[in-house]
């Protein structure tokens, strides 16, 4: 099993550009989530999904969209990138909302 | 913010010593989890303790939970250089679907 995979590993954007961060898991997990990690802030939840077709906002959802058309994939879209979105983004999955989460390797995003 | 906080923010010890880090949180929880993050990598789950448990062990790890004080501690015994990493606590509430992570403790184990 590959676990949780994320692409790309690194990305540089200009302000105003849009892009999609990809996340996939092969563990048949229902629960998936996106976090951003900033220095001194720990991880903050952006959006999460409890199953295909169901998504909800986390702590810092503004500027991001998600969809969950399949159990395996949970892409994160930046609609119009801003320098404040410079961060490391992690995708995670778990078999249920109370259980341990499995994290992807992260995407380091820089917005100029 | 509903984030928890770890204490201390940074900890430096000699190999073989014990390392203790603490986590405080704000809401009632279903469980509390500890994760490790090596530099430049994703987080890895270490241990989960449920709200009705007070202590749990896994290898060299010992976790305690005090729900009346809304706090937890992680003890790593006989530390090794390979334990050098950041450690995060995460709480899962009974009422929501969200994980809340603390701000992390950076542990350095000096060989």
What structural class should be given to the helix and strand makeup of chain A?
mainly beta
Distance from N terminus to C terminus of chain A (CA atoms, Å) equals: 36 Å
* Beta-strand proportion of chain B: over 45%
Radius of gyration of chain B: 13 Å
Q: Could you state the order of secondary-structure elements of chain A as H and E?
A: EEEEEEEEEEE
How would you explain this protein's 3D organization?
With about 110 residues, chain A is mostly beta strands. Chain A contains no helices and 11 strands. Chain A has strands spanning about 5, 10-15, 20-25, 30-40, 40-50, 55, 65, 75-80, 85-95, 100-105, 105-110. In chain A, strands 2, 4, 5, 6, 9, 10 and 11 form a 7-stranded mixed beta sheet that branches. Chain A has a 4-stranded antiparallel beta sheet with strand order 1-3-8-7, with no helix packed on it. Chain A is globular. The model of chain A has no long low-confidence stretch (mean pLDDT about 95). Chain B has about 110 residues and is mainly β. In chain B, about 0% of the residues lie in helices and about 60% in strands. Chain B has no helices and 11 strands. In chain B, the strands form 2 sheets. In chain B, strands 2, 4, 5, 9, 10 and 11 form a 6-stranded mixed beta sheet that branches. A 5-stranded antiparallel beta sheet of chain B has the order 1-3-8-7-6, with no helix packed on it. The radius of gyration of chain B is 13 Å and the shape is globular. The chains are: A mainly beta (about 110), B mainly beta (about 110).
């Amino acid at each position: 099993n590959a676990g949780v995979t994320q692409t790309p590993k690194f990305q540089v954007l200009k302000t105003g550009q849009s892009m999609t961060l990809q996340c996939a898991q092969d563990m048949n997990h229902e629960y998936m989530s996106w976090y951003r990690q900033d220095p001194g802030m720990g991880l903050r939840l952006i959006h999460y999904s409890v199953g295909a077709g169901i998504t909800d906002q986390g702590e810092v959802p503004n500027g991001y969209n998600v969809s969950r058309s399949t159990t395996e994939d949970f892409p994160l879209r930046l609609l119009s990138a801003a320098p404040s979105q410079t961060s490391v983004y992690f995708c995670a999955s778990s078999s249920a909302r109370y259980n341990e989460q499995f994290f992807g390797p992260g995407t380091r995003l820089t917005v100029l | 913010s509903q984030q928890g906080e770890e204490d201390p923010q940074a900890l430096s010890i000699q190999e073989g010593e014990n390392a203790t880090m603490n986590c405080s949180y704000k809401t009632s929880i279903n469980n509390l989890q500890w994760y490790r993050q090596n530099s430049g990598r994703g987080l890895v789950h270490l241990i989960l303790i449920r709200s009705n448990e007070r202590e749990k062990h896994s290898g060299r790890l010992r976790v305690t939970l005090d729900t009346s004080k809304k706090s937890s501690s992680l003890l790593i015994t006989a530390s090794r250089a390979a334990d050098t990493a950041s450690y995060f606590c995460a709480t899962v509430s009974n009422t929501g679907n969200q994980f809340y992570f603390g701000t992390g403790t950076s542990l350095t184990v000096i060989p």
